[in-house]
Amino acid sequence: MVSATSARARTRNRGTPIQFSLGLTHNTRNRARPTSFQLFSEMIVPVAIALTVGLLGWAYQALKPPPPKICGSPGGPPVTSPRVKLSDGRHLAYREFGVPKEEAKHKIIVVHGFDSSKDLSLPIAQELVEELSIYFLFFDRAGYGESDPYPSRSVKSEAFDIQELADKLQIGSKFYVIGISMGAYPVWGCLKYIPHRHDNYPPTTSLVVPFVHYWWPCVPANLSRESLSTLPVSDQWAFRVAHYAPWLFHWWMTQKFFPSLSVLCGNTSVFSRTDLEMLKKLSEAPSVGQEKITQQGHHESLYRDILAGYAKWEFDPSDLKNPFPDNEGAVHIWRGCEDKIIPYKLNRYIAEKLPWIRYHEVPGYGHLLFLESHLCDAILKALVLGE
Q1: What is the CA radius of gyration of the chain?
Q2: Which of 1, 211, 276, 370 has the fewest CB within 10 Å, making it most exposed?
Q3: 371 within 8 A of 181, measured Cβ to Cβ
């Protein structure tokens, strides 16, 4: 028989674990329930990671240029012009004009400028072409029109493109080169990189309303700053980004927060009175092939052109020696006194520093002076006749 005392003791002993067990269960549940701070702490890390990844993805897409639409490739524009295949596999599209090259006394390669192409129509009198027996060779620079893009495009590569084009088309060792506006930097490249390719090379050259580099070492810093400051603020920043942060340039030219380049934004304040008159005439009769200029992509044509021009060069004009020590040729610079796109002081400074340059300033005209027929004739006569 069990005593009451023993029964109560056993009851207490049996109850103790029950009470302990219940207490443990209760405490565990309290500790397992997260607080608001714990929830926030646990959420902030994955949210921050997601935002960072998203931001990096957006930045990558914004900075990365779109793939080019290469002419002749599936889904790309058709090839409608004659082209030559270069040694690296790229193609250059070209257009011939004037008398047949086999009969020509003078052969001229024309290097088009920014937002232009081989279809550039110069107002040259047919009578003068026949009288002087001139053969013209126009071509699309890399990425423009129907010429293949070239990611490594530079002053040097453009010069060698001109050399190889001349060889492929067998136009002979003696020819002339006209570089217009942005097309001037490939001509500076010719004078630097291929000066002695042939006995009669380099050719007599004309730089018409030529591009200038605001970071040429030969130009005094104060003159460069002064010249750059004459441009619209949007243009100043575009050129600075191209020079100092080329990896950012595609984003800069496509972002919508700030204006980029005046000529692409429709800002007519950069044109002189005569330029505006010329643009009005051109609008009444649009140029042939205008729609093809950027058909492979704005980055491959326009943006890479600026990047190549404003990159750090391996030389500047002051490094060049007189290519015509025996006066058998000349380098001409033509510019309009009213040109608001290319500051006159830099070109004038270069001409004064290099006495073998023949410098021409035309009063009353701006950046589009080469589209005026009588001035175009004067440029040609000075080039081939030395007048």
Answers
A1: 34
A2: 1
A3: no
